[in-house]
Amino acid sequence: MDVIAQMIQKKAYKLGYEKCGIISIDLMDEYAEKFNERIEKIPRLKMFYQSQQRLANPKKIYPWAKSVVVLSVAYGKYKVPEELNGHIAKAYLFDTRVDKNTKQYQSNRALEKYMQELGLKVETNQKFGVVGMRWAAMKAGIGIIRRNNFLYTESGSWVQLEAWVTDREMELKETNNVVQCPKACNRCMTSCPTKSLSAPYTMSPTECISFLTTFGVSNLPQETLSKTFGNCIYGCDICQDVCPMNKGKWKEEIEFPGLPELSSLLTPESILKMEEDFYRERIQPKFFYLSSEELWKWKVNVLCYMRNNYKESYKPLIIDACDNENNKVREMAYSICRKLCLQ
Ligand code: SF4
Ligand code: SF4
User: What PROSITE patterns has UniProt attached to this entry (predicted)?
Assistant: First the structure.
């Protein structure tokens, strides 16, 4: 048994990680093969997958890398503010990747420092990962990938994954007691509003609400799928919320630092009235999938929500948005006014 690998795992547990496994970097080769097969099968997704290429080929980017340390941390312990429930995906509400105030962010930094002190060369990318994380976690024994494509541990799918590549040959498999999906279950697929999750393990990212309301959104006023977005404003949890294997896994035990203060400022009405300076300072650093120039995309998402869940109190806000300085916001607002005969 590799003593260094065991020391890393022990340190990870001490820092609050749920699981920690280590695999050879060679185990990512199979992921690259599957990744390329998928691109060949669905050429229209080529553009999307091109941006993910680096995760499939870590050896090209880190030629010195020999192993991958992969960890899970459960986030289903935070209280979900009522105003935001179902509107903003939980992974974004409780995102610790960039939030320096969270214990998890500090644990991430402490673990990296510890590995360096052990003499290892390591590399991570806190925001976007260094390898195909779910694949690495499955190979490391951290959990299983279910038909909705999420990785599940005993905490359900409410886990954040973190990974480092290292220059040391190591292997340390984790253990899990996660059972497979019930044979006849297809609840995640039948519940997907856009049919992006069309078959087991088959999801078209460019039709997924999570993509279309965050970094993939470019022309929502013309996107016919937007009519199916329901309550979603930024991200989507539907295929995880409906999963029986997530039942009872969200515990709501503690407040997420800073979120109670922010929640009243993220209601649909508040977003639509939000000023650029406030957005850049308070909102964008947390929800970093949209840039500091893209408050307009939040506003288009909110207008889409208001159309899909229309009530009279939204009328003056939608009419006001027809005079917004951004043409996409105006386009969305006008189209709603036309459709609902608002004046
Ligand atoms: S996140 Fe939402 S849109 Fe995307 S696959 Fe799941 S249910 Fe479908
Ligand atoms: S909803 Fe059913 S099929 Fe889908 S991931 Fe959960 S258990 Fe598996």
Answer: 4FE4S_FER_2
What tens digit of pLDDT does each residue of 5-39 get? 999 999 999 999 999 999 999 999 999 998 888 88
Cα of 240 vs centre of ligand 2, distance in Å, is 8
Look up residue 226 and give its two tokens: 């937007």
- CA torsion, points 50, 22, 91, 157, in degrees to nearest 10? 110
Give tens-digit pLDDT for 54-107.
Answer: 898 999 999 999 999 999 999 999 999 999 999 999 999 999 998 998 999 999
Concatenating the DSSP letter of every residue in 230-285 gives TT-SB---HHHHT-GGGTT-----BPPTTHHHHHGGGSHHHHHH--HHHIIIIITT
Q: What is the position in ligand 1's atom list of the atom closest to the CA of 240? A: 6
Does 194 lie in the same domain as 145?
Answer: no
Query: Do 221 and 155 reside in the same domain of the chain?
Result: no
Q: From atom 4 of ligand 2, which residue's Cα is the shortest distance away?
A: 188
Instruction: Describe the crossing of helices 103-117 and 3-14 by its angle, rounded to 10 degrees.
Output: 160
Structure tokens at 158: 């409410």
Residues 223 and 131 in one domain: no
CA 316 from chain centre, in angstroms, equals 33
Residue 212 has a CB neighbour count (10 Å cut-off) of 26
d(Cα 218, Cα 222) in Å, to the nearest integer? 9
Pick 310 or 54 by higher pLDDT.
310
**Residue 192 CA to ligand 1 centre (angstroms):** 5
Question: How many Å apart are CA 104 and CA 71, to the nearest integer?
Answer: 12
Q: Counting every residue, how long is the chain? A: 343
Please report the pLDDT score of residue 238 as a whole number: 98
Domain that holds residue 305: 187-242+264-340
Residue 286 has pLDDT above 80, yes or no: yes
Same domain assignment for residues 33 and 126: yes
Tell me how far the alpha carbon of residue 179 lies from the centroid of ligand 2, in angstroms.
11
